[in-house]
């Protein structure tokens, strides 16, 4: 219980140090102590505690999961991480978190095998939300199948509706799939109810532009520019940075005529 949140880690460390002092052969106690150390960045102490847990019980899947998560924090630790996640699965075949971490590492290394691991996660737990997001990223980045990516992002958002980054991914996937009407259906009402999500405004503006709803597109672009910093706004408003040479000449001629 004590090690559930990072804010409790300092207390958890003292509690589990006491527990493992009283019961030095209690493998789960060493595992919980290691998790608490890992949360506050004591990686070497976490490593010692996880290894002590394995020494006490070499079939404890939680200890191998913890070692895998620890190796993920180390430079070039992915190989050792996967090896430990596979050990965790050896002793608990339905260990969803271990399987998901393998999938995530394989996706990061652009391995197409990641898809099979994600499918196994969803087969074991159809409500494991991060797997839907990862599958969307897989289809978007590795397969360039944007309609499929959007489908998985939408499924993820049905479980985690508060994820702003995923909503942006959903919009961009539909943009790449040229499904502009769907963008308006999904995002217009959301932007009205959540005006702080400015990253969605350029997506809506581009969809409106493609649908030749130019006034709506301009309104979304203006709304977006009002919410960004002056430094970022400069990159959008400095015409020489944006225009082609012939466009710049034409613009300057128009400005000169207006003057």
How are the secondary structure elements laid out?
Blueprint: H1 9-22, H2 27-39, H3 43-56, H4 61-72, H5 78-91, H6 96-108, H7 114-124, H8 129-143, H9 146-159, H10 164-176, H11 180-193, H12 201-210, H13 214-227, H14 230-237, H15 239-242, H16 245-258
Helix pairs in contact: 1-2, 2-3, 2-4, 3-4, 4-5, 5-6, 6-7, 6-8, 7-8, 8-9, 9-10, 10-12, 11-12, 12-13
Architecture overview:
The protein is mainly α. Helix content is 76%, strand content 0%. It has helices spanning 9-22, 27-39, 43-56, 61-72, 78-91, 96-108, 114-124, 129-143, 146-159, 164-176, 180-193, 201-210, 214-227, 230-237, 239-242, 245-258. The protein starts with 8 loop residues before the first helix and ends with a helix. The mean pLDDT is 91.
Brief digest:
The protein has 16 helices and no strands. The protein is mainly alpha-helical and about 260 residues long.
List the uncertain runs. Answer: none
Shape: elongated
Q: Can you count the beta strands?
A: 0
Derived structural class: mainly alpha
Query: Could you give a short account of the major beta sheet?
Result: none
Overall mean confidence score, pLDDT:
91
Cα radius of gyration in angstroms: 25 Å
**What is the succession of H and E elements?**
HHHHHHHHHHHHHHHH
User: Beta-strand percentage?
Assistant: under 5%
Helix content: over 70%
Spatial gap, N to C terminus: 72 Å
